[in-house]
Amino acid sequence: MTERQRLLIGGAWVEPDDGHYRVTDPATEGIVGWAPEASREQVRAACAAAREAFGPWSRTPPEERAAVLARTADLIQGRLGPYAELAQAESGATTGTARGMQVGVAVARFRRYARVEPVEQPLPPQINEAGPFGPATVMGALAVRQPVGVVACVTSYNNPWANPAGKVAPALAMGNTVVVKPAPQDPLSVYRMAEALQEAGAPPGVVNVVGGARPEVGEAAVDCPDVDMVSFTGSTAVGQRIAEVCGRSVKRQLMELGGKGAALVFDDADLDAAVAGIGTTFSFYSGQICTAPTRVLAQRGVYDRLVDRLAAYARHLKVGDPRERDTVVGPLISAAHRDRVEAYVELGRKEGARLVTGGERPPHDRGFYVAPTLLADCTPDMRVVREEIFGPVVVVVPFDAEEEGIDLANASDYGLIDYVWSGDVARAFRVARRLRTGGVGVNTVGRNMEAPFGGFKKSGVGRDVGSYALHAYSELQAVVWPG
Question: Does residue 246 have an active-site annotation?
Fold first, then answer.
């Protein structure tokens, strides 16, 4: 609690120019530690260090880069217990989530990108007729993936291990260097990840971490001339501002932004599966996930039963200290975010939604808790239906015909992941193909971690996960020659 974290710049751990700020445990409101506040000059120094390290690192054999990632995975795995305790203290995640979905997923991502994949793809030879460029010839060609350069990784607070690992590991595997700006709410875990990378053999300047609570820190990284690409996970509003800055200097972007996932539940759906899937919004990280099925579109024949069963599911969940074994719903990340979510619930009531369950603050002396909340009889024009709440709140809208359900699902500024539940698999896949969204879960909220991940519309730009992340952190170069 008294340790004051330092910044990682060019392989050295340095004191922040602008002091430290308190990192708060959202469950106890106690002090987790003190995070550094970098100055703009220190951010620029980190970017310059990454630029200097880029040449040697990009020329390092892919097998050697992969070995660094593999050793990093081993180190994190060996410290899973204390790392998960820190992640839990910073983020308020339950023990299972902190161990499995935060630190555990980070280990899996470093291991995934420790696999060396080919970066050259031979293309079919092309016969060129004689002309202004010379005699007739056969031209060979290769499509070669090259690293982008220096990548600014701006991470989200809802997963202080898996999210930065999903940026850093593929970026390094492709030969890029990185400057990581962690979320201000739970940054300490990211510094532990950087320590593991350094111990695993990442050369000085390849990985830099410069954090801070002020927006100026992230802005300094995004607009730095030494940065070639920005990888951002967070709100659409912030993503739009970053895109404006990147546009001025034509920087590459990878953005995973907001979501308002539609869950279409048809009359013939398996209600047990649908309720369990939608219920993850209430429970998994207290709804602070952009992929959550927060906007339920229920066909009339199943509407009342679905609302009743979702309410029963929500009431059954224990809200409380995430360190206790039987806790399912932990706190939100901060008091400000709790107030925001509660304001949305009250707005829904004023708009005419029916509060079926939740809506009250759980009786805890400390912590930023919101009870799992279900708003039914909603209409498409309500703000609680259109806007991302990012908490344990589900809204339900009825529909009649299949076409109406599809139209309602697509009537959103967002398009990250939608879901379809139907006993008619042919219909489920037919509907999925018509949804304007980056991903669709058919009778599941599960993920395939090799499938591309990203959004349509205001949910993002680009795709990552699996081999798609290697593509995202690379430029495509054509090499041609006469055969």
Answer: no
